[in-house]
Amino acid sequence: MALMITDECINCDVCEPECPNGAISPGEEIYEIDPDLCTECVGHYDTPQCVEVCPVDCIPKDPDHEETEAQLMAKYEKLTAENA
Length: 84
Prior knowledge:
Blueprint: E1 24-26, E2 31-33, H1 49-53, H2 69-82
Antiparallel strand pairs: 1-2
């Protein structure tokens, strides 16, 4: 399942540089996560790095983009192959 950023985001800028897939970018009002790029850090880290650094705890799983650990790993492998 990809992650999402809720409207509780305070635009503190700490999550964007932590994303190894470049899935986080500034939106019109708050930061946004591209579900096509988000692997919840599977393949990179044991826990999602954006969640680790978020000071307001506004990055839950996105219920509209449910994925298994295997699907997240397949997405990671595809993304890293494209960037190689």
